[in-house]
TrEMBL record, chains A, B:
Protein name per its UniProtKB record: Holliday junction resolvase RecU
Lineage: superkingdom: Bacteria
A Pfam entry, by short name: RecU
Major place of residence: cytoplasm
Function of the protein: Endonuclease that resolves Holliday junction intermediates in genetic recombination. Cleaves mobile four-strand junctions by introducing symmetrical nicks in paired strands. Promotes annealing of linear ssDNA with homologous dsDNA. Required for DNA repair, homologous recombination and chromosome segregation.
Catalyzed reaction equations: Endonucleolytic cleavage at a junction such as a reciprocal single-stranded crossover between two homologous DNA duplexes (Holliday junction)
Feature type site, description Transition state stabilizer: K103
Gene Ontology biological-process entries: chromosome segregation; DNA recombination; DNA repair
């Protein structure tokens, strides 16, 4: 039951707001899971259920020094992280090639283009030219909202950033993308929204 | 001109055979390139020509210890190689998802199944179930012959190995696969043979 002030206004406090937030989060299951964890778990489900084969690519490493101890596995003694030249995730779903990035932002009203490197955009454009399905899964962490943002939105803002703004307004993502409702299995059922993309 | 023995048999020596082999190798360009190098170079060509987007996945690494020096890039101080759970190559070609391994063998008459792990076979089967195009590029290094071997050949021998042989006869690969002729650009024009697979 909602409690009202004598003037009719709804009674809310920071406390009740945080309770609501906690209640919402209950269906998300594990608190504090990163978007990457959530997507990896979703992909695991999709794989085991025979729905799709999507994997996160390993982080590229530049190996400088490897030590081979006798009778045991090689040990990398020195290596550096390399910048990825592609996106993080790809795979196959009902004959379609999927290729996407997953990004979290703490921003409230827009998604900064600085989340991407030029070669990732180039990669996604090349994949789309080959009739691959490209998108970004964007999470606004302050509101726990997750969107599937088709790559064309990203391309439009990326290509205009020299003269335009350096971020994509959340309102545009809400209008032209798809908000993904959290579920139980999989946690982030993004393939439902890929189906909508394919119907377009 | 072929030189014949008085009995009509063709005159061959180890020496002339190796000369022939060397002559063949001239068109391959760089001697001593590994199959992986040759495929990476071919993929680079396919990408730059807008023909396909195929990448080798980074080697998966288990990072144990990372050092973050001030004002410079993170240095991995200890890490191990992990076993890959998928194949080495995947990507998109004219709307098709491609997924493959590249393997060299020094064997002369067969290709050992020990080149694969169970989870790679499982991965390729799952991809094929999603209408992905799966195959292995096999190089017989002693004769410098490269074949595109459709995944079904591998699956058949893999599934029968408990009671059957532990390798795929080269004769079967020659009969049911495609021998890839080396070329200049790209060095290994395997997509020509993917076209044949798609026509089937």
């Amino acid at each position: 039951m909602a409690i009202h002030y004598p003037n009719g206004g709804l009674f809310t406090t920071k406390n009740s707001a945080s309770k609501k937030s906690r209640a919402n989060n209950t269906i998300y299951g594990k608190r504090g899971m990163s978007l990457e964890d959530e997507i990896n778990e979703s992909n695991k489900y999709y794989l085991s259920a025979g729905i799709a084969v999507i994997h996160k690519k390993p982080t590229p490493i530049q190996i400088v020094d490897v030590y081979y101890p006798k009778r045991s596995a090689a040990v990398i003694k020195k290596a550096y992280f390399k910048q990825a030249s592609t996106t993080d995730y790809n795979g196959v779903y009902r004959g379609h090639y999927l290729d996407f990035e997953a990004k979290e932002t703490k921003n409230k009203t827009s998604f900064p283009l600085s989340n991407f490197h030029a070669h990732q955009i180039k990669h996604m454009k090349a994949c789309q030219d080959q009739a691959g399905i490209c998108f970004t899964i964007v999470k606004f962490v302050t509101t726990d909202q997750v969107f599937l943002m088709p790559a064309n939105i990203l391309f439009d803002y990326w290509d205009a950033q020299a003269t335009g703004r350096k971020s994509i307004p959340k309102a545009v993502i809400e209008r032209d993308g798809f908000e993904i409702d959290y579920a139980l299995r999989p946690r982030i059922p993004y393939l439902n929204y890929v189906d909508l993309l394919l119907e377009k």
